[in-house]
C-alpha cells in the first residue's frame, strides 16, 4: 500500500493574498476564506511517532443507510458485524475511525498509517497505546454515508472524520483533523476535555475577531470521547417484563431530581453506587420516593453532555447537564458499572426498578442547542458533520442564530434535525423505557423560520407520532428570542411549566400582590391559560421552585442571589427572585426568625399541593434543603447541590417532610384535589352550590370588585358533590368538600366560616401554624361561626354534613 506521502504531491506553502499567514496549497480553500494551522505541508492528517506494525484492515461492505448510527446485526451470509450510517449532507468524504487499545504497539501514528484525501486505510497509535483504524465509507445514499464492517462487535469504540470545504463565511466548517462523535451513538466512552486541539479553528489565534476562520489541523482524537457500539438486546437489560405505571396526568405528582445530587450523600446507598443510575435504583433511594408519595421523577439531563471551557478553566464542571452532545447516550459519568456500553443496561435497570415501585421516569431533554456553542466553540460532532445542515445560521453564515442563550440553536425545520430529535425521543421511550419528557426552552423547537409557530414541523410531527403522542410531554414554554414567551400557547397533548403560578404564589406569601385576580386563576387550574382546545387543568405544571433559582428554604431565607462560587462576579442568575427573607438575609440563630421561615415553608408547600393542576416538587424541598443563597448552582457539583439527608434528623425539617407526605396522601385520596376538568363556577344540581366558590373573611362570597382590591386573606370552597367525569367503571365521582383559607398577613385574622348550604360544620385537617404535622388536628368547627386564622398560615377544613 502506498504511503500517504507517496500519494500526495508535496508543494511549497504559499502566501494567502488576503490573510497575513501561510496556508497549504494542497487544501482547496478560496483566497481569503480560511486558513489551516498545525499541518505540515504534504503530510496529510497529523501523525506522530514511530510506524505501527502493519495489519490487514477490516473489510467494509456496502451496508445500509438505515438505521442511522452504529447497529450490531447479522449481515450478508450470516456474518455478524456492525452497520455504520451517518447523515452528512454536504460532505465530500467520510471516514469511520475504529479505536482499539488491545495489543497496540508502542509509538505513534505513522504517516503511512493515516488516511488522507484519497481514502487510504490504515492503523496507527494515537495516544497511550490506542490504535486508530480509519476506514472510508464509500457508499452514499440520500446524503447518508454507510458501510457494514464484519466482525465489529458491541464494545467497539468509534468516531467519524468528515471531509469537505472550509469556508466559514458560507457556514462550511468541515475539518477531517477533528474526530467527531456519532450523533446516534448509544453509549459514549471517555471525558470531554477542551484543549486547543478539539476546536475546528485555532482557538488561541491572536486576532480573535477572525479566529473562527482559521482552520486548525491538530488531531483531536486523543482528547475527545468515542462512541461505543451497543448490543440492542444485551442479556443484562432484563427489560422484557417491565410494566409502565401509566399514571393519569391528573393523578401525577412530579419530583424533579438530579441523579448524582440525589444519591451522593444518601447514607443508605453504598459508596460505590452513589452518584449513579444504580444508586437511584437502590431500594434506599426508591423507599424515600415511595414514602413521600410522588408518582414521577423528572431527571435533570441524562443525555451525554460536555463541560464548558470557561468552567473547566476555573476548575468547575457543568453539574445540571444542559449542554448535550449525545442524544441517544446515557451520560457516562452517572454509570457505576462501566462506560463501554454498560451504562445503557444500568439505565434500563434503574427505569425498571422505578417502574416496579409505581414511579414514572420523565427526562429533561435539551434539543434546542448543543455543547458546541457559537462560532468560537469546539468541534465535537454536528458542526464538523454538516454545520449548515444542523444549526440555524444568520445571514452572515459565520454566525449562529442564538435563541437559547447558549451560542447556537438546532435548526429543527431541517428534515435531518427533526429526524435526529424524533428518533432520539422514540429510542428513549421504546428501548430505554422512559415515560415522558420535559423539553428545555421548548419555544426554540417550535420556531419555523424565525417566529414561534404552534403549527411548526416539530409540533406537527409529535402530534401524529404513534409513540410520542402517548407519553407525557411537558414544555418549558419560552426561549430567549423575540416572541419566545409562550405560556398557555402550546397545543393539546402538551403540559407546560407554569411560571405564572410560581410568581403569583411567591408574591402572595411575601405580601406583594396588588390584587388577588391572578392568584385565583393559579390556585384553580389556570383556566385563563389552558381552557381552550380541549386542554385540561393538568396542562398546568404548578411549581414554586425548580432546579434553577432558589430552593424553597432559600426562598424564605434570602432576598438576593449569592452566586459568588460560580466565579462570575455574582452577575449570573436572575435578580427577579420574588423572595422574602423574613427580616434577615441568610442563615440566622434567631429562634423567632427560624420559626417564621419554617411556617413559610409549610405555607408554600401546602398551597402547591392543594392547587388544581400537576404539582412539581424539587428534590430536597420537602426537608428544607439550602444552597446557601445560590440561585444558579449549575456548576456546583459539590455539597452546595447534593441533598443533605441528615436534615431528616432535625425536628423542623422532619416536620416539613411529614407534612409533605400527609398532603400528598390527602391529594391521592381525594379526587376533588386533582380534578380532570376545569371548575365551572356555576351552580350544580340539586342543591344549587357552585363547584368552586371564593370567600372573604366576613364569610360572604367575593364580588367582582373584591378581585381588584389588595387582600391578604382568601377562602376557596372546593365542592366534591358533583365532580365532572366518571371512574373506570362509568360511575359518578363524588368526594368530600373542602374549605381552604390562605392568610399571608402578619397578624391573626378572624374568618367567618360559611354556614349552610355550604356546610353545617368543618373538621380541621391542616393548620400550617403548627410545628407538629404528624396527624390531622381533628378540631371540629361549626359553620357560620368565626374562627381565628393564625398569622401567615393556611387552614384546610373538611366539610362535615
Automatic annotation (TrEMBL):
Span list, region Disordered: 1-62
Keyword Hydrolase in the entry? The reply is yes
Q: Which GO terms describe its molecular function?
A: amylo-alpha-1,6-glucosidase activity
Q: Which UniProt keywords apply?
A: Glycosidase, Hydrolase
Where is each Glycosyl hydrolase family 13 catalytic domain found? 256-667
Which residues fall in a compositionally biased region of kind Basic and acidic residues? 8-26
- Write down the superkingdom of origin: Bacteria
One Pfam entry name? CBM_48
Membrane-spanning regions, if any?
Answer: none
A single Gene Ontology biological process assigned to it is:
glycogen catabolic process
Show the InterPro entries listed in the entry. Answer: GH (IPR017853), GH13_cat_dom (IPR006047), GlgX_Isoamylase_N_E_set (IPR044505), Glyco_hydro_13_N (IPR004193), Glyco_hydro_b (IPR013780), Glycogen_debranch_GlgX (IPR011837), Ig-like_fold (IPR013783), Ig_E-set (IPR014756)
Family to which the UniProt record says this protein belongs: Belongs to the glycosyl hydrolase 13 family.
Protein name, UniProt field: Glycogen debranching enzyme GlgX
What organism does the record attribute this protein to? Streptomyces niveus (Streptomyces spheroides)
Amino acid at each position: 500500500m502506498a504511503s500517504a506521502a507517496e500519494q500526495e504531491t508535496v508543494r511549497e506553502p504559499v502566501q494567502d493574498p488576503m490573510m497575513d499567514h501561510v496556508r497549504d496549497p494542497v487544501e482547496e480553500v478560496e483566497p481569503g476564506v480560511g486558513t489551516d494551522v498545525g499541518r505540515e505541508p504534504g503530510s496529510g492528517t497529523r501523525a506522530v511517532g514511530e510506524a505501527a506494525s502493519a495489519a490487514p484492515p477490516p473489510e467494509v461492505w456496502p451496508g445500509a443507510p438505515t438505521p442511522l448510527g452504529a447497529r450490531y446485526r447479522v449481515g450478508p451470509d450470516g456474518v455478524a458485524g456492525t452497520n455504520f450510517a451517518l447523515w452528512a449532507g454536504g460532505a465530500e468524504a467520510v471516514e469511520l475511525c475504529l479505536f482499539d487499545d488491545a495489543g497496540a504497539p508502542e509509538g505513534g501514528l505513522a504517516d503511512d498509517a493515516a488516511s488522507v484525501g484519497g481514502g487510504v486505510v490504515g492503523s496507527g497509535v494515537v495516544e497511550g497505546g490506542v490504535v486508530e483504524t480509519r476506514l472510508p465509507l464509500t457508499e452514499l445514499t440520500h446524503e447518508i454515508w454507510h458501510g457494514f464492517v464484519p466482525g465489529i462487535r458491541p464494545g467497539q469504540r468509534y468516531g467519524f472524520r468528515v471531509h469537505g470545504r472550509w469556508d466559514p463565511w458560507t457556514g462550511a466548517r468541515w475539518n477531517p483533523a477533528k474526530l467527531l462523535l456519532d450523533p446516534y451513538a448509544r453509549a459514549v466512552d471517555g471525558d470531554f476535555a477542551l484543549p486547543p486541539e478539539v476546536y475546528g479553528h485555532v482557538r488561541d489565534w491572536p486576532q480573535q475577531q477572525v479566529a473562527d476562520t482559521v482552520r486548525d489541523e491538530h488531531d483531536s482524537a486523543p482528547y475527545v470521547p468515542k462512541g461505543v457500539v451497543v448490543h440492542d438486546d444485551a442479556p443484562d437489560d432484563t427489560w422484557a417484563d417491565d410494566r409502565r405505571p401509566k399514571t393519569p396526568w391528573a393523578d401525577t405528582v412530579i419530583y424533579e431530581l438530579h441523579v448524582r445530587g440525589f444519591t451522593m450523600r444518601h447514607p443508605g446507598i453504598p459508596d460505590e453506587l452513589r452518584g449513579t443510575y444504580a444508586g437511584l435504583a437502590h431500594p434506599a433511594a426508591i423507599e424515600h420516593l415511595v414514602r413521600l408519595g410522588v408518582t414521577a421523577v423528572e431527571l435533570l439531563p441524562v443525555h451525554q453532555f460536555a463541560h464548558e471551557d470557561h468552567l473547566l478553566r476555573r476548575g468547575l464542571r457543568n453539574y445540571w447537564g444542559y449542554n448535550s452532545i449525545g442524544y441517544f447516550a446515557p451520560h457516562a459519568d452517572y454509570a457505576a458499572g462501566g462506560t463501554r456500553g454498560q451504562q445503557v443496561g444500568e439505565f434500563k435497570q434503574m427505569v425498571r426498578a422505578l417502574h416496579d415501585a409505581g414511579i414514572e421516569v420523565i427526562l429533561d431533554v435539551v434539543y434546542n442547542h448543543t455543547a458546541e456553542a457559537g462560532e468560537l466553540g469546539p468541534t465535537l460532532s454536528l458542526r464538523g458533520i454538516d454545520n449548515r445542515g444542523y444549526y440555524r445560521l444568520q445571514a452572515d453564515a459565520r454566525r449562529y442564530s442564538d435563541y437559547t442563550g447558549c451560542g447556537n440553536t438546532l435548526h429543527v425545520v431541517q428534515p435531518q434535525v427533526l429526524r435526529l430529535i424524533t428518533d432520539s425521543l422514540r429510542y428513549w421511550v421504546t428501548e430505554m423505557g422512559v415515560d415522558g419528557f420535559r423539553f428545555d426552552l421548548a419555544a426554540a423547537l417550535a420556531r419555523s423560520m424565525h417566529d414561534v409557530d404552534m403549527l411548526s414541523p416539530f409540533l406537527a410531527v409529535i402530534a401524529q407520532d404513534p409513540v410520542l403522542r402517548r407519553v407525557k410531554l411537558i414544555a418549558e414554554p419560552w426561549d430567549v428570542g423575540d416572541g419566545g414567551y409562550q405560556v398557555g400557547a402550546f397545543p393539546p397533548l402538551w403540559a407546560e411549566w407554569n411560571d405564572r403560578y410560581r410568581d403569583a404564589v411567591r408574591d402572595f406569601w411575601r405580601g406583594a400582590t396588588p390584587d388577588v385576580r391572578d392568584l385565583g386563576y393559579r390556585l384553580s387550574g389556570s383556566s385563563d391559560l389552558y381552557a381552550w382546545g380541549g386542554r385540561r387543568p393538568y396542562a398546568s405544571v404548578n411549581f414554586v421552585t425548580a432546579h434553577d433559582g432558589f430552593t424553597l428554604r432559600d426562598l424564605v431565607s434570602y432576598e438576593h442571589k449569592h452566586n459568588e462560587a460560580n466565579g462570575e462576579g455574582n452577575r449570573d442568575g436572575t435578580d427577579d427572585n420574588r423572595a422574602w427573607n423574613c427580616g434577615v438575609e441568610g442563615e440566622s440563630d434567631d429562634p423567632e426568625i427560624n420559626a417564621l421561615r419554617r411556617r413559610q415553608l409549610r405555607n408554600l408547600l401546602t398551597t402547591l399541593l392543594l392547587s388544581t393542576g400537576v404539582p412539581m416538587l424539587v428534590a430536597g424541598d420537602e426537608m428544607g434543603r439550602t444552597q446557601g443563597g445560590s440561585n444558579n448552582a449549575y456548576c456546583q457539583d459539590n455539597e452546595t447541590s447534593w441533598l443533605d439527608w441528615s436534615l431528616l434528623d432535625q425536628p423542623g425539617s422532619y416536620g416539613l417532610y411529614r407534612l409533605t407526605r400527609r398532603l400528598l396522601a390527602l391529594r391521592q385520596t381525594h379526587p376533588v384535589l386533582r380534578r380532570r376538568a376545569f371548575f365551572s363556577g356555576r351552580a350544580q344540581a340539586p342543591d344549587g352550590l357552585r363547584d368552586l366558590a371564593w370567600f372573604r373573611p366576613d364569610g360572604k362570597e367575593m364580588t367582582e370588585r373584591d378581585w381588584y382590591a389588595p387582600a391578604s386573606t382568601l377562602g376557596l370552597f372546593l365542592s366534591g358533590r358533583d365532580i365532572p367525569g366518571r371512574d373506570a367503571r362509568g360511575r359518578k365521582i363524588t368526594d368530600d368538600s373542602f374549605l381552604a383559607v390562605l392568610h399571608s398577613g402578619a397578624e391573626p385574622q378572624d374568618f367567618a366560616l360559611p354556614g349552610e348550604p355550604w356546610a353545617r360544620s368543618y373538621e380541621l385537617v391542616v393548620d400550617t401554624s403548627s410545628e407538629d404535622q404528624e396527624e390531622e388536628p381533628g378540631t371540629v368547627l361549626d359553620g357560620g361561626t368565626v374562627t381565628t386564622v393564625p398569622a401567615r398560615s393556611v387552614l384546610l377544613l373538611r366539610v362535615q354534613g
